[in-house]
TrEMBL record:
<feature type="domain" description="Amine oxidase">
    <location>
        <begin position="28"/>
        <end position="124"/>
    </location>
</feature>
<dbReference type="Pfam" id="PF01593">
    <property type="entry name" value="Amino_oxidase"/>
</dbReference>
<feature type="region of interest" description="Disordered">
    <location>
        <begin position="392"/>
        <end position="415"/>
    </location>
</feature>
<dbReference type="InterPro" id="IPR036188">
    <property type="entry name" value="FAD/NAD-bd_sf"/>
</dbReference>
<dbReference type="InterPro" id="IPR002937">
    <property type="entry name" value="Amino_oxidase"/>
</dbReference>
<protein>
    <submittedName>
        <fullName>Peroxisomal N(1)-acetyl-spermine/spermidine oxidase</fullName>
    </submittedName>
</protein>
<dbReference type="GO" id="GO:0016491">
    <property type="term" value="F:oxidoreductase activity"/>
</dbReference>
<feature type="compositionally biased region" description="Basic and acidic residues">
    <location>
        <begin position="393"/>
        <end position="405"/>
    </location>
</feature>
<dbReference type="InterPro" id="IPR050281">
    <property type="entry name" value="Flavin_monoamine_oxidase"/>
</dbReference>
<feature type="domain" description="Amine oxidase">
    <location>
        <begin position="134"/>
        <end position="375"/>
    </location>
</feature>
Amino acid sequence: MAANMNVSAAVNATLVNVDVLIIGAGAAGLTAAYDLKRSSDNSFRILEASSVIGGRLKKMPTGFADFPIDIGGEWIHDEPTVLENITGVEVEVETIPYVDSYVEWEDGEWYSYGYYTEDYKFVNYTWFDLFNDYMAPDVLDHVDFDCQVEFIDWSTIPVEVSCSDGLRYFTANHVIVTVPMSVLQSDDIYFEPALPVETQVAIDKYDFMSGMKVFMKYGERFYREAFEFASDYPYDEDWINGSSRYFYSATFGQDTDLNILGSFSVGDTYEPFVNLTNEQIFASINTQLDSVYEGQASEYFVEGYVQDWNDQPYIRGSYTHLDETPDEWDAIEELRLPLEDRIFFAGEAIPPYTYQFGNVHGAAYSGRAAAEKIMDLLGQADADLDASISRTKSGEALEHSEKTHGSPSLSSSSRRTFVSHPVVSFCLTMFASYLV
Ligand SMILES: Cc1cc2nc3c(=O)[nH]c(=O)nc-3n(C[C@H](O)[C@H](O)[C@H](O)COP(=O)(O)OP(=O)(O)OC[C@H]3O[C@@H](n4cnc5c(N)ncnc54)[C@H](O)[C@@H]3O)c2cc1C
């Protein structure tokens, strides 16, 4: 055993041996666990650094609104059938189509962006609820909470893993790593031996963008359904570098009399909020809105709620962004490759199909793809799982990579254009820009 795995030296230390370890209990980790549970007899544990499941799926605490609000992943960037594809069972929840035409305030006028998306939103339900209601019950007793993995020794079989409390040690033949890219880019997890150069280069290609959601409650509805401010963008290429501050009516489709305006500041548009108190953030947003709505934001403001994703110690931002160049996109393919069939990477940054990048369902399917490869290795693959990985939205699918690390890349012709935006993931239709 490696020095860090000196279990006998630690008083009250535990050593657990399983077939599969899953690191992270977000959408990817929960789906991997759920599939292992449903389709195999393999033993597994989920090691989660925080004290809750969900990761970037989180619900607003009760008291602010009379309907549930996702303060992390919120839109369904696919057909609603994706919910049943993820859970593998009939899902009885209501969803509503969300067609957004991206209106922007520029030089005193409203302009259409010229882009349309076709998404869905939950009605009286959330992404967090889906994983909590349909998947967590099957896997919760396999989760080790408050277990921040700090060491992975994959030089041996089984792989050895330890948590930062120095009390919990694990061994497994296969490890699925689903932590956010921000964590992989830091020194939080020490790999022994170090990750291969190709893997590290791929990890470093990603931008993990800042992100904050702010919900503002008003006594009157004075704002339009969804909009942005051209002035929020430090660069002309805001969509190319992934930055955006998007305002939207959070009550869309909900049975409520409340007026709640959501906003999501990602990338550069997060910066103006750094070091501000919540009250200063509310004032800043109201000042911005007042400039268009003639003082009504300040006049009708009741209260606000801030979810700063940069502040979350095991997340540290919103989601990943890659420039749209073949060289950058290679990172996804590289990270799909298992290391010696021992270490498997999964998560929103590594979806099985590139157009699912940065999404909840892409993260879930990446966990499924990793679990499936492992079940293959252990002789327990379930063909149905593979078939359920969604192809509902049009777009070229990248084949699942069954290659091991270092195999040739898929051709760049199989890639699909991706525009990073809170509610833009696919299916963009461009029209001429016009005043609205
Ligand atoms: C504000 C915001 C808005 C979004 N909007 C949408 C949307 O509208 N639609 C959509 O589809 N997607 C959206 N997304 C993206 C979506 O939420 C994510 O892609 C998805 O939830 C990521 O899941 P994951 O499992 O890959 O990672 P995570 O959810 O980040 O899970 C990783 C887990 O690993 C844990 N962890 C970290 N370090 C360690 C460690 N050392 N040891 C053990 N555990 C560790 C973390 O605590 C976390 O629980 C949004 C994200 C954000 C933040």
